[in-house]
Fold this sequence. Notes:
Blueprint: E1 17-20, E2 23-24, E3 27-28, H1 30-46, E4 50-56, H2 60-66, E5 73-78, H3 87-101, E6 105-109, H4 112-125, E7 129-133, E8 135-138, E9 145-151, E10 156-160, E11 168-172, E12 189-193, E13 224-228, H5 237-247, E14 251-254, H6 256-260, E15 281-285, H7 291-294, E16 302-307, H8 314-317, E17 320-323, H9 326-346
Parallel strand pairs: 1-4, 1-6, 4-5, 5-12, 6-11, 7-11, 13-14, 13-15, 15-16, 16-17
Antiparallel strand pairs: 2-3, 8-9, 9-10
Helix pairs in contact: 3-4, 5-9
Bound molecules: flavin-adenine dinucleotide.
Amino acid sequence: MRAKVNQNINLNEYNGVFVIGEQFEGKIHPVTIELIGEGKKLAKQLKKEISVIIAGNNIEKSAQNLLNYGVNKVYYLEHILLTDYITDFYANSIAELLKEKKPEIVLIGATSIGRDLGPRLSAKLGTGLTADCTKLEIDEKDNKLLQTRPAFGGNLMATIICPKNRPQMSTVRPGVMEKAKYQEVIEGQLEKITPIIDKKEIRVNLLKKEKQENTKLNLADAKIIVAGGRGLKEKKGFELIEKLARCLNGEVGASRAAVDAGWINYTHQVGQTGTTVHPDLYIACGISGAIQHLAGMQESKYIVAINKDPNAPIFKICDFGIVGDVYEVLSTIIKTIEEKKKGEELQ
Ligand SMILES: Cc1cc2nc3c(=O)[nH]c(=O)nc-3n(C[C@H](O)[C@H](O)[C@H](O)COP(=O)(O)OP(=O)(O)OC[C@H]3O[C@@H](n4cnc5c(N)ncnc54)[C@H](O)[C@@H]3O)c2cc1C
């Protein structure tokens, strides 16, 4: 069934910024706080309110906590059938609330859940959705939302508007926007909503949940990342990358070329189609610096690049560049750190 575009709507009826929050077993996904941070900036510019919608079961405490991030309203949809994320139940309940509240902007995390939910919500509301935005601004001329995202394989940045329909909807990748600050003083209000859910609405059922191993990896929040690319030549090269990451208490990242070669799991991929990171220190080892990789790491505070080609594009954006063989350079760095640590232990 094709979605119907909402025609001839009165744009003036739509007000304020809404964030669709995400929780798993009561734990709020960090992207929710990032969206609140960005949503607050937009709401301030528009001189409008910011609200959050969160759905689940027994989530009052999590919903209450969201008020500590300076939002005006938190609506929490509570129902036994919302215990786990089930597309139809979540999409129908949240869409009903959005139809009633008529926000002008809706922000959703580009997580696996958000990527499933976002298009369904926009179809139900008969409006557009810009996926994977990296920048959001308000046009000073007419208060429209300018939604910027990489296009054509990341070779250009496209700014998209939704001129005739509301809400203006965007998904934003985790780790891109700055988190809202926690504040002790609560000024907003909490409102519980019990959606009416018809079990017959369900088309997809959840049969089993399996936790993925390696959930400890948290690239998006890592302070130090040592990342390996095709220049490592083989899987074994990641042993050195892991060793340096361990020495520095950091995490292991990778380029897509290294992931595609099967040298490391996709969860380590940094870039446009991987994780967006902004650590204090990013060490790129044998990575050329393709635009799609840079899209996910160029906001790092300090970038160190090791590459044997002095003309590699990564050198244009790094703070410290080392031209040399990645194996030789990494072995020297690891040896130096280990010796320094030993010296400190003896003192
Ligand atoms: C739609 C789309 C999305 C994409 N998304 C991503 C993404 O999310 N993340 C991502 O990383 N890529 C992504 N890519 C792929 C991207 O375009 C590049 O192909 C990829 O980043 C290249 O990885 P690399 O730098 O490891 O490999 P290469 O580009 O092959 O670079 C290897 C580098 O290693 C150096 N080198 C070789 N041997 C040595 C040595 N002995 N010592 C030191 N240096 C050495 C070489 O000089 C070279 O610069 C995407 C592409 C497309 C089209």
